[in-house]
Write a structure and sequence with these properties.
single chain; about 575 residues; alpha/beta; Glucose Oxidase, domain 1; four-stranded parallel β-sheet; 14 strands; about 35% helix; about 15% strand; globular; binds FE2/S2 (inorganic) cluster; iron-sulfur cluster binding; hydro-lyase activity; lyase; ILV_EDD_C; Dihydroxyacid dehydratase
């Protein structure tokens, strides 16, 4: 085990990055200081102090981030108390349930914005405020490329929802009750009641969806303060945590503790172990690969299989767990309690942003409810919930969440029913004459990074209505799409290369035989290499979709899912110059 790099120096005021703006005696510095005094500050308020950027993804349109306006003020209070100068930097919000075609299309835009905000202003350290799904990797990716001392404060999950005595989980129950309505088992009025009950407070989805998964991943990486990832958004503890982030980031600047000291290969192993032990979202595989790429850490998809095989699922939180939600997880001890069960699988000498090692931070952590956070001898599932598949249908990989599927499909061979795109699927799926049964393999193409575009969360295709009415609850589904972290079912996702660029998914036809063999990590279409080559030579690439604008940038630079969908010019650690002071 390699010991992580540790910072050695203590910064002086003249060493601060912001000194170039505020500390110099020249014409430009005069302008920087006088226009900062225009805010109503005196020199002593900001000159010679760490300038702390608070990148805030608050917006009226993002219900998961409603409280972040208030939290920014609490972070500022902590920064002032610790002797820093806080500046709030608003950034684009990625509201998962509202933005179209998908927030994933804009993850890299927020990452770029974060990096350039930090680079172009006199920022010495940064607190990142966000949490709604893609927001988290975007903020951390941008901050990683900039490389300053950084703390991520997750927005925190919303409170547990209830309806007619039942507990409702974000996403998971949205899908479930829609199926109930399509099958005629609940009325439109009852469905409207669920609609008004399922999101009870501000905060992120309270299942172990992408938001909760990525918050846990960031805490395990060391980018968030210990215990922060599961604090419910409206809890007073969340307000106190915001103040703590403000205090700590000032000290981190003086210690010169930067992300390069924290985001080591060992930290990414810890993050992947946490992902598996939480039964977390498939989206995290894409994000972790992209985040590692920014940190200069080689983290190929295959690494997840090795970690998944040795890591039990201990978080009994929906959708992989049956009963509980994030509020329960928090009261049961949160992530430190879970990680304390896995010490033998973690690199305990990895550094956290609080300046202590993971091992030090786990001292004294214990579980308060052993049904919510399981002990090693009583796991929810013996191995991790995610498996990377390969084969002639996915030469560069695909992903399946085994923890959330019917085990009867772990090894399955059946005929394909192929849909050319989402609208094609939606127009046929409820027809009574659809030629389909529970052995059919549903295939959706043109839903990948370029085909979607933005790789929408269409991977949990709805089950055909005629089968729903017969009580069928799961089928094998294959696509180059993603699926929500709150989804479930036998859904093979992220097929790479995607069909839009001519991957084998573009070549498969209705009636071809497909094999899914999860123990063998295989996704195979029963076609000869010659037949595939013949079909490929007849394949026509689709016409370009964007003539200008951000979409054109995406088309030109986005990488495939196995590379984390980062833009090719953003990945890696090649330095970008500091702005000249003129
Ligand atoms: Fe924002 Fe789920 S919609 S976290
Ligand atoms: Mg989601």
């Amino acid at each position: 085990m390699t010991t992580p790099r540790k910072p050695v120096r203590r910064m002086a005021a003249e060493d601060l990055r912001s000194h170039r703006w505020f500390g110099a005696q020249d014409l430009r510095a005069f302008g920087h200081r006088s226009r900062t005094m225009q805010i109503g500050l005196v020199r002593e308020d900001f000159v010679g102090k760490p300038v702390i950027g608070i990148v805030n993804t608050w917006s009226d349109i993002n219900p998961c981030h409603t409280h972040l306006r208030e939290r920014a003020e609490q972070v500022k209070r902590g920064v002032w108390q610790a002797g820093g100068y806080p500046v709030e930097l608003p950034a684009i919000t990625l509201a998962e349930t509202i933005q179209k075609p998908t927030t994933m299309m804009y993850r890299n835009l927020l990452a770029m914005e974060t990096e350039e905000l930090l680079r172009s202003y006199p920022i010495d350290g940064v607190v990142l405020l966000g949490g709604c799904d893609k927001t988290t990797p975007a903020l951390v990716m941008g901050a990683t490329s900039m490389g300053l001392p950084t703390i991520f404060l997750p927005a925190g999950p919303m409170l547990t929802a209830r309806w007619r005595g039942q507990t409702l989980g974000s996403g998971s129950d949205q899908w479930k009750f829609w199926d109930e309505r399509r099958a005629g088992r609940i009325t439109a009025e009852e469905h409207a009641e669920v609609e008004g009950s399922i999101a009870r407070s501000h905060g992120t989805c309270m299942t172990m969806g992408t938001a909760s998964t990525m918050a846990a991943v960031c805490e395990a990486l060391g980018v968030s303060l210990p215990g922060s990832c599961s604090i419910p958004a409206p809890d007073s503890g969340h307000m106190r945590m915001a103040g703590e982030c403000g205090k700590r980031i000032v000290e981190m600047v003086w210690e010169d503790l930067r992300l390069e000291h924290i985001l080591t290969p060992q930290a990414f192993d810890n993050a992947a172990t946490t992902l598996m032990a939480n039964g977390g979202s498939t989206n995290a595989l894409i994000h972790l690969v992209a985040m590692a790429g920014r940190a200069g850490v080689d983290f190929p998809l295959e690494r997840f299989n090795a970690i998944s095989a040795r890591t039990p699922v201990l978080a009994n939180v929906r959708p992989v767990g049956q009963a509980y939600l994030m509020e329960d997880f928090h009261y049961a001890g949160g992530l430190p309690a879970l990680l304390a069960q896995l010490k033998d699988l973690l690199h305990l000498d990895s550094l956290n942003c609080n300046g202590r090692t993971l091992g030090e931070n786990l001292e004294g952590a214990r579980i308060w409810n052993e049904d919510v956070i399981r002990t090693r001898d009583n796991p929810v599932k013996a191995d991790g919930g995610l498996v990377v598949l390969k084969g002639n249908l996915a030469p560069d990989g695909a992903v399946i969440k085994t923890g959330a599927m019917d085990p009867r499909y772990l090894q399955h061979t059946g005929p394909a029913l192929v849909f050319d795109d989402y609208n094609h699927m939606a127009s046929l799926i409820d027809r009574d004459d659809l030629d389909v049964d529970e052995n059919t393999v549903l295939v959706l193409r043109n839903a990948g990074p370029l085909g979607g575009p933005g790789m929408p969360e269409w991977g949990m295709m709805p089950l055909p209505r005629k089968l729903l009415l017969r009580g069928v609850k799961d089928m094998v589904r294959i696509s180059d799409a993603r699926m929500s972290g709150t989804s479930y079912g036998t859904c093979v996702l992220h097929v790479a290369p995607e069909s839009w660029v001519g991957g084998p998914l573009a070549l498969i036809r209705t009636g071809d035989t497909v094999t899914l063999d999860v123990p063998a990590q295989l996704l195979h279409v029963h076609l000869s290499d010659e037949e595939l080559a013949e079909r490929r030579s007849a394949w026509q690439p689709p016409p370009p979709r964007f003539a200008r604008g951000y979409g054109k940038l995406v088309v030109q630079h986005i990488q495939q899912a196995d590379k984390g969908c980062d833009f090719d010019f953003l990945t890696g650690t090649a330095p970008t110059a500091e702005p000249e002071i003129h």
